[in-house]
Write a structure and sequence with these properties.
Elements lengths: L2 E4 L5 H12 L3 E6 L11 E5 L5 H14 L5 E4 L14 H21 L9 E5 L12 H20 L6 E7 L2 E2 L8 H8 L8 E2 H13 L7 E4 L5
Parallel strand pairs: 1-2, 1-4, 2-3, 4-5, 5-6, 6-9, 7-8
């Protein structure tokens, strides 16, 4: 049985990705933060890990190493957004976003490198805020842009192994909390895309499925953008 890691894998997009990989026969190790995850799923092992804590990240990795001979897929789904202006963003804000979005995933891949066999898959879920320049949310844009650079450089690290590294860059994803917004607000946001709707989570998961199934897509930043302008 193949093994996969998914950060932030017990809710929303992460859980849908986990269930997709379970259908493909993977055993899943998922990190999460927050209330205890109580759903019981075969071959799904959730662990409460604060990715902003390097001690907890290394503890998670020790558990994985003790139970797995190989890690065949890593989905770097966790991220952190702090909506503050440039001058209001504190050192702590900056450090937390870097730890969760960039450093934790770098450490996970580095520490598991010897367990990643040929023809494995590494996929980052990164918001499109890393593509254009940002002023009102500079720290968010910078962390996402660093992930894009990490992807292109990891391709060289895994050169010749058949292991692919890609990033999926969504824009508006149809999440449950959006249902509570006033209809006028939702309509305004929908109209900012040429398709006039958000991306259903299942369609975003299909983009990740595509990267898992396709061995020729490598070093790519796949935009799921609805032609947002």
């Amino acid at each position: 049985m193949k093994n996969a890691i998914i950060t932030d894998g017990t809710s929303g997009i992460g859980l849908r990705v986990a269930k997709m990989l379970l259908e493909k026969g993977y055993r899943i190790y998922a990190t999460y933060v927050g209330p205890e995850f109580k759903e019981k799923i075969d071959n799904f092992f959730p662990m409460n890990v604060n990715l902003a804590s390097r001690e907890e990240v290394h503890g998670f990795l020790q558990t994985v190493k003790s139970q797995c001979d190989t890690i065949d897929c890593i989905v770097c789904n966790a991220g952190m957004t702090i909506c503050k202006s440039f001058t209001e963003t504190t050192d702590s804000d900056w450090d937390k976003m870097m730890e969760v979005t960039v450093n934790s995933h770098y450490i996970i891949i580095r520490e598991l490198f010897t367990l990643i066999p040929h023809d494995s898959r590494i996929i980052f879920n990164e918001f499109q805020m890393g593509l254009p320049s940002q002023a009102n949310a500079l720290s968010n844009g910078v962390t996402k842009a660093i992930v894009h650079a990490l992807v292109s450089n990891l391709v060289k690290v895994f050169e010749g192994t058949g292991t692919t590294v890609n990033a999926i860059a969504p824009n508006f994803i149809e999440k449950s909390w959006q249902k509570d917004k006033p209809e006028q607000v939702k309509q305004k946001t929908d109209n900012e895309t040429t398709i006039h709707r958000f991306t259903p989570v299942i369609e975003f998961v299909d983009a990740i499925r595509f990267c898992v199934d396709n061995s020729s897509i490598n070093g790519s930043l796949i935009e799921v953008n609805l032609d947002y302008s």
